[in-house]
Amino acid sequence: MNTLFNFDADPEDLVEQVISTFVNTPSSNAVYTIINYFLKIFLEFPGLEITSFYILNQSTYEFEYYQTFPSEMESQGAEIFEYLTDVGSLGTAVSNRSLYSNFDNPYGKALLVNPLISFSNIVGLLIMQVSHIEQEKYQSYYYAITLLSAHFANKLENIQMVESQQQNERELEQKIAERTMELLKSKVDLHEKFAELKANLTMALPHELRTPINQLKGNSTLLIKHCADLDPEDIAEMSQDIYDSTVRINRLFENYLYYANLELTAIDPISLDAVQQNNFEYYNGLVDDIARDRCRTAGREEDLNLNLVETQVQFSETEMIKLISELIDNSIKFSQQGTPIVIDSYLTDDNLILSITDHGRGMAPEQINNIDAYMQFGRKEHEQQGMGLGLAICRRIVDLHDGKLSIESELDQYTKVKILIHTKHYSLYV
């Protein structure tokens, strides 16, 4: 028995009846509670048998099924929705943003398509099946549905706005929490990186200094204690050894500072980005010049064999000079005069492969592993005196340029250091 609305009343009284339902609207901000309340109110309309509600997904702009009253009519409600969609009634109602009636249908009853329109947006859709509407009461019926639907739409939109705001607040809180954790993790990572840097630098220098300092100490002690008993030739030889040791110590300190700067660059994103943005065009000429100069100084120019391709590389010129100098010096130091030192390069995909090979003492597999372990900072000693820090510098330079350095070697046969460097492709015609 329908009691809420009297469609025999005059329009002003009917408006008052509809408005009275507004006062009793639940204060809940739960979407389900509000939808449930209004669907039950609509069922108070005379002859209204089925009311189905579809909510508009604001992301996909598709109507998604939500609820049907009475619940046992859910399947028929879905069937009616599909029918109204197929015959275009649903599209007409949404396009016109107004209630649309379909009387000529297989169900023999009035089917109403009612878009729920708030102040500015469509928020949902009501599909209704009405058994009969008296002709003289149709206008009042239509007006009451439209008025109640407007209140329903505005209430629903307000709840959705509150939910959206709460969701945004939750997401903001989540992002703040995640950002806080990132900052804390960055702080921990930075602390660990500085601790690692301190450990690396602490272990790098003392080992390399031991030999030249012992030579200085031994020769200077002999000169102090036995100067009067030594021949001029012996004094000259010891003096030369002292000079050579000071040169070596000076170079070690320079390398130590260079290595420290590389480590600081690795943990500074701005400095690292600046290094990786470098482009160097004539690398082959630079490599050629450095190799010839170093071999000429060591009396090994005849041993040098160069085979270089031309390309532009993404590499700092300063770092390239240091990289090639260290590797050439190692090849000279650990191979005999008269044995070849080969430097060649080739292109593959977007990379340059540069290799430096000498045929000297070579290294056993365990020695290569130990050197690599040191360069990866997992080991506290060097297996090759005088080589560790230089190779550590080379590895770090290549790493900072997002390249790769590998070592191939056989004991008493050869050592090949292979470097992968990214090339910079460009065209003269844009």
Could you walk me through the main structural features you see in this protein, from its secondary elements to its overall organization?
By secondary structure, the protein is an alpha+beta fold. It has 2 domains: 11-172, Beta-Lactamase (2-Layer Sandwich); 270-422, 2-Layer Sandwich (Heat Shock Protein 90). It is 54% helix and 17% strand. The strands form 2 sheets. A 5-stranded antiparallel β-sheet has the order 2-1-5-4-3, with helices on both faces. Strand 9 and strand 10 (414-422) form a beta hairpin. The chain starts with 10 loop residues before the first helix and ends in an 8-residue tail after the last strand.
Briefly say what this structure is.
The chain is of the alpha+beta class. The chain has helices at 11-23, 31-42, 74-86, 89-96, 138-226, 232-266, 269-276, 283-297, 317-333, 365-375, 388-400, and strands at residues 48-56, 63-69, 100-102, 110-117, 122-130, 304-307, 341-348, 351-358, 404-410, 414-422. It is rod-shaped.
Count of distinct strands: 10
**Which shape, going by the Cα principal axes?**
rod-shaped
Oligomer: single chain
The CATH topology of the largest domain corresponds to Beta-Lactamase
CATH architectural group of the largest domain: 2-Layer Sandwich
CATH superfamily of the largest domain: GAF domain
Provide tags for this entry.
single chain; 430 residues; alpha+beta; Beta-Lactamase; five-stranded antiparallel beta sheet; five-stranded mixed beta sheet; rod-shaped
